[in-house]
Amino acid sequence: MDKPFDGGISRYYEEDAPQDVRDRIKSAQKGQILNPTYPYDRRWDRKDYEKALAALQIELVKLQAAAREDGQRIVIVFEGRDAAGKGGTIARFREHLNPRHANVVALSKPTDLEQTQWYFQRYIDHMPAAGEIVFFDRSWYNRGVVEHVFGFCTEQQRQKWFAQVSEFERLLIEDGIQLFKVWLNVGRATQLKRFLDREDDPLKQWKLSWIDVEGLSKWDAYTDAIDETLNKTHSDHAPWLIVRSDDKRRARVNTVRAVLDRLSYARKDAKAIGAVDAKVAGGPDLWHA
């Protein structure tokens, strides 16, 4: 999983990408949404986005201060295809928070020792103490999708994981952790366009890896694995929040709104938070939208 990235996104675009995907990328105008099933045609206006985000970030600062007072422990898991916007969304959550108490966990592949441990063990080490918020940039859900698609685990290991994950999450919640699971869903043309932009930008090439290139041809395998994972791991005690992220601005704002809406904290301002756009963020039904 740690092989260096040596190009290949543009080659895939020219030679292997489906024709309808290439056509949408070629004909797209600035600000146009590439996913034909997305509920909006164009990206959200920047001024409206920044105004909404600023109000939400004030609420996040209030939440962190309250959590430090009352000892809340919060975990937010971010999952989704590569280039779905996980890192950018996490960055907007944390932008004005005290980083000492708002940690990002983005684990690399397991070490030889970790491969011999219980699968969830290395994630437990990063669970929050009182007053902390932890953001997982990918998580134990690697086993449900990426490891399965690329053959990094056996089917027996995956089925064992499915049998344990819901109870694992129940134990976290029963111990007092407030758990949020966010799946950022992105269309095929949008994903490829973001990869192409990264490949052209020397400041963003670090985000690419060989697994991104190989994953482009595994779109359908990813889809099947995601579908099975969401169906088997959505529960009353640990539901999935599906966020359609072809428009990063709408995705970021509505993810923050959905999280804040479920939390209780001092001086919470429901008007400042606003209403979650149900066409952008909601339950598993949005995965099939």
Give structural attributes.
single chain; 289 residues; alpha/beta; six-stranded mixed beta sheet; globular
Number of helical runs? 12
What is the terminal separation in angstroms?
31 Å
Structure classification? alpha/beta
Low-confidence stretches: none
Rounded mean pLDDT is: 96
Q: What characteristic shape results from the CA principal axes? A: globular
How would you summarize the topology of this molecule?
Blueprint: H1 9-15, H2 19-27, H3 46-70, E1 73-80, H4 86-94, E2 102-105, H5 121-124, E3 133-137, H6 146-149, H7 155-174, E4 177-185, H8 188-200, H9 210-216, H10 219-233, E5 240-244, H11 248-262, H12 270-273, E6 281-282
Parallel strand pairs: 1-3, 1-4, 2-3, 4-5
Antiparallel strand pairs: 5-6
Could you characterize the architecture of this molecule?
α2 crosses α8 (188-200). 46% of the residues lie in helices and 11% in strands. The chain has a six-stranded mixed β-sheet with strand order 2-3-1-4-5-6, sandwiched between helices. The chain is an alpha/beta fold and 289 residues long. It has helices at 9-15, 19-27, 46-70, 86-94, 121-124, 146-149, 155-174, 188-200, 210-216, 219-233, 248-262, 270-273; strands at 73-80, 102-105, 133-137, 177-185, 240-244, 281-282. β2 (102-105), α5 (121-124) and β3 form a beta-alpha-beta unit.
What's the quick description here?
The chain is of the alpha/beta class.
